[in-house]
Amino acid sequence: MILEIKNLCASIDEKEILKGINLTINPGEVHAIMGPNGSGKSTLASVLAGKSDYEVTSGSVTFKNQDLLDLDPEIRAREGLFLSFQYPVEIPGVSTANFLKASVNEVRKHRGLEPYDAMEFLKVMKKELELLEMDKSFLSRSLNEGFSGGEKKRNEIFQMAMLDPVLSILDETDSGLDIDALRIVAEGVNKLRNTERSFLIITHYQRLLDYIVPDFVHVLYQGKIIKTGTKELALELEERGYDWLKSEVPSLEEVQ
Amino acid sequence: MSVDSFVQNFKNTFETAQKALNGSSKFYPNVVRANAFESFLKSGIPTTKNEEWKYVNLFPFFSIDFQFSASQVISNEFAIFIKDSIESINPDVALVLVNGKILPQLCKNLDSYEGKILGLDQYYNEHPDEFTTLFHSLQLSPNTIFENVSTALSFDGFVVQYDKNVVTEKPLFLLNFIDTTNNHIVIPTRYIVKAEKLSQASIIEQTLTFGPNTSLSIATSEVFVDEQANVTIVKLQNDKKESIVLDSMSIAQKSSSTVTSTTVSYGSSLIRNNHRAVHNGSNVHTNMFGLAIAQDKQVIDNHTEIDHATAHCSSTESYKHILSDSSTVVFNGKVYVREQAQKTNAYQSNKTILLSDTATINSKPQLEIFADDVKCSHGATCGGIDEEAIFYLRSRGISTKDAMSMLTLAFAEDVIMKIENESVRTRIEEDFLTLLSNRTK
Ligand SMILES: Nc1ncnc2c1ncn2[C@@H]1O[C@H](COP(=O)(O)OP(=O)(O)OP(=O)(O)O)[C@@H](O)[C@H]1O
Ligand SMILES: [Mg+2]
User: Fold this and answer.
1) How does B43-69 read in b/e, with b if 16+ C-beta sit within 10 Å?
2) Tens digits of per-residue pLDDT, B102-150?
């Protein structure tokens, strides 16, 4: 397996958000996580990426046979974990190209590959940009600064393609994308799909899952995965919402 | 040793020079020098009780025994240092000062340079009226202190003259080499820039100290910019730690002229800049940019003043500071808008990044507006590096240290980009990254 989350509990400012998550992802699998606002989806993604604001109070996460929680965020990235942020930050003064060159070369160095020189890098970058139908003027602009919501999301996927991760966590990458962009982004993901690479896709909409067909769909509710199914579960959620599930697990509060 | 010995050495130096004048003490430039001498003796070295020097206690810096007279002999080692430095700066045109004196054989391409360099006394002989109205005319405020030291000892002072319509292609590098091999040494420098109507010029200043002792550069300049002239001044203050810089620049601008001054400070143990511009005409524009990166116990003090004395003029001022360790940065930005200066457009901003709890920033914007139909704004920010941004970069495989460097450089970048000369820009960026990566995190 690539990722094994066992009974993960995490809190922020003493408030418990994740209340015992269990999730196993094998190489090549695509998992989708759905769930109402505030249920802890982004928290899970942040904890996996290594954001220090969250305190892991119990449980374990194993990533490629290593204790993930023990690794610094940059090491996680170099080891092949990628998070496409729900809200990518704007970084004025740092050009997208310079940032990405530093990033890609760190990752390559870690993996024992030669860093790209300026020319090679430009070539690789241009190819990925074309695949994502992005204008190369992005490269000279400050990272995410003044990017539209959709452009920021595309930029995340562009970075994902450049960094060649083994596990990509996409936190609502589909939100804010127009229909064409959604298709392009989904195609970008599908091109990367193979027996090695895995994806954890957080979304509110079943539509994305039409393009990127998941192997499993999980429902996160109040910090717990309360149901796991296949892609049909997403369709059912789209039709029925979450209420029926909430009532299906009345014991949830009692269990705690 | 003390402040008293500084004053005593200054006095002796001036009096020795005075004796050597052989009766030319009535010669007008010497009269100005003698007046400046008297003024400094009256003021002495300012204490922190002086409002203008409130945040910087000079006394510890003056506790070493500074000599005013440098050896006239250039040692082999010093000559090599000069040669190597010039080679690495690689200027097209350079005016080279060695221990305060112009050394013609080291200057580069001055003969073909569009600007003319004249000694102060020579300038007086050729243009007595101009000299009388210009020399030290901008320095006669009650706050004039070290400017008087430079002026009193301005025997090697010079004028950079740009005639009407002269448009220079290359910047003039003004390189000030100081040798401290034998003792701690004070080097006063004094110059005037006269840019006549429609002329365009660019000057890049740098002081380079050689030797184990401390140099004290007391530099005073006046920049006169006539109608429609455009002058750019870059001060690269990156000298070694065993140095102190007291730099005073006063700019006077006539109608439709533009001056852009960019001061980048990250060397020396103490840097104090007094940079001011006064407007005398309409459609004048002044840009004043500054960047300070202070580490260890460095002190960088930027005092600026923009005097909107006339109507329909504008100024843009932006200073950025990056502080770490136990450094101190002072920013005092005075903007005066006089009663008659209607339709003034003045913008000032100063932003600070604090990388340590023990660093101190004293920021004091000081806008005094006496006209009613004006647009003036100022803003100041102070904070650490954005944690969210650091996490974003780390989540892409970039180490905390590199992320900090990137974000700090990004903060500084818009000031650096104001410098037109690419080699100076690259130099600054490289030095910045080295400084930042040497920081113990
Ligand atoms: N700093 C904080 N202090 C207190 N509560 C917080 C803090 N940060 C997040 N939370 C809470 O944690 C809960 C989970 O938030 P999270 O962002 O993980 O939800 P989500 O499932 O991603 O929601 P959405 O679908 O809206 O993106 C929310 O109730 C949120 O208010
Ligand atoms: Mg979320």
Assistant:
1) eebbeeeeebbbbbebeebbebebbbe
2) 999 999 999 999 999 999 999 999 999 999 999 999 988 878 999 999 9
A234–chain B nearest CA distance, Å: 29
Q: For B398-427, how does the pLDDT look when each residue is reduced to its tens digit (9 = 90+)?
A: 999 999 989 999 999 999 999 999 999 999
Residue that finishes a domain, picked among B250, B281, B312 = B281
Do A77 and B409 count as a contact with CB atoms less than 8 A apart?
A: no
* pTM assigned to the model: 0.86
**CA of residue A39 to ligand 2 center, whole Å:** 8
**Same domain? B261 vs B409:** no
Please count the other Cβ atoms lying within 10 Å of the Cβ belonging to residue B151: 28
- Single out the residue in B281, B312, B330 at which a domain terminates: B281
Domain coverage including residue A156? 3-255
Residues of chain A contacting B411 with CB distance shorter than 8 Å: 93
Indicate whether A256 pLDDT > 50.
no
- CA distances for B68 relative to A34, B58, B106, B217, angstroms: 77, 18, 23, 11
Q: Which ligand is nearest to the CA of A224?
A: 1
Whether residues B268 and B414 fall in one domain = no
Domain assignment of residue B396, given as a range: 387-441
Unique residue bearing structure tokens 């580069």: B108
DSSP secondary structure code for residue A118 in this structure: H
Say if residue B398 is in the same domain as residue B267.
no
Residue A19: give its domain's CATH number. Answer: 3.40.50.300
| Ligand showing the shortest atom-to-Cα distance for residue A48 | 1
